[in-house]
Write a structure and sequence with these properties.
Layout lengths: L4 E4 L3 H12 L4 E5 L23 E4 L6 H11 L3 H8 L1 E2 L4 E4 L1 H14 L3 E5 L11 E3 L7 H11 L4 E7 L2 E3 L9 E2 L15 E6 L1 H13 L21 H5 L27 E7 L6 E4 L8 H8 L10 E3 L2 E7 L2 H4 L5 E2 L2 E6 L9 H20 L11 H12 L25 H27 L1
Parallel strand pairs: 1-2, 1-7, 2-6, 7-17
Antiparallel strand pairs: 3-5, 4-5, 8-15, 9-13, 9-14, 10-11, 11-12, 12-13, 16-17
Amino acid sequence: MSHDLHIIGGGLAGSEAAWQAAEAGLKVRLSEMRGGGDTTPAHESDRLAEMVCSNSFRSDDSENNAVGLLHQEMRRLGSLIMACADAHRVPAGSALAVDREAFAAEVTKRIAAHPNITVVRERIDELPAEDLAIVATGPLTAPGLAQAIAQKTGTDALAFFDAIAPIVHRDSIDMSVCWFQSRWDKDPIGSGGKDYINCPMTKEQYEAFVAALNEGEKTEFKDWEKDTPYFEGCMPIEVMAARGVDTLRFGPMKGVGLDDPRTGRWPHAVVQLRQDNALGTLWNMVGFQTKLKHGEQVRIFRTIPGLENAEFARLGGIHRNSFIKSPELLDRELRLKSRPNVRFAGQITGCEGYVESAAIGLIAARFAIAEKRGEPLPTLPPETALGALLAHITGGADADTYQPMNVNFGLMPPLEGPKTKKADRKKLYTNRAREAFDAWVAKAERVIA
């Protein structure tokens, strides 16, 4: 195939990059090893943009949350990932959660139907020598390509563990014990403030549960894996439990804002489940990423009130994720300094999260489009969510201590003027970001429209 841009990896970042480039008129070769005889330890299908760990894109609040602001910026730029997420949204309070299978099927269908994209099911083991390329192979990059990257960069890839939460069949949950409610009854999309199933725990039940987590048999790591750090935003439930008896009760199992209809009070602790598919037949255990062995998961999680007879559509798991030392290796346009025809995008750059991954795929493609047309893309303002994330990856972070990062207001330049309340500061950040983004779009669209 004759192509203008070679994209390696068909996850969220690669799919978004392919769409952006194709919509701008570039001929794209999208290489994806799944479906060509290869797979990864975490994926279950060969669909493009398969969501592995959960079905949530997190907060969709663009007024008060940095990730919600990133959603808004991506929608402004014609994001395929956001369009498909919006089309297959399921109730999740103020968060944007999707039916994962329908979402991935929609992305796959739209990519396959685009006249400027050719999807090739193949594994790539070397960095392209001359082709303009984007490597978006994600945190589960195949060993051959990972080794080639390490050889070309002169440094070893960093790595961390990422864990997967279990999914429960809805009809196996005891709703005489559990109830539907969003925390504080939040109802941003008209679902009645009942987006989560809540399983309450008394103090005694909670402490017994924490003890069981601490004593449960865990997955053993290989010697080469033992010093690999976890990402704090996706910490296994039992690792949190080991930090102290109240850690979970003030984290994913907090009961505040949830009124148990049987008592009228907040429970000592709560396990929440979030809808995982459009039919409402599958529910994800929120914050329950785990490295417990499968038999232990069934035994321990069935001690949760309401889940005594739980049937699991998927049990939790753990996999090793890899990422490069981007602040040292990449330039400000995500090009590999030692081979500038190659850009990196997505989680392999060290951004964390589905949305962040897709966003970096989006901007990597736009850099490639501008380069192909011979006109540089205007610098993204660091006051924007996308600009702040890009700046962090490409030099804002300390390369020696670089770890995966979600988008957050702390990546943006500090606000000027007198100090304000925390709630007011969030709106000041988002208002400033929108103004800066509007000005950037007006200039950028002339380059890649």
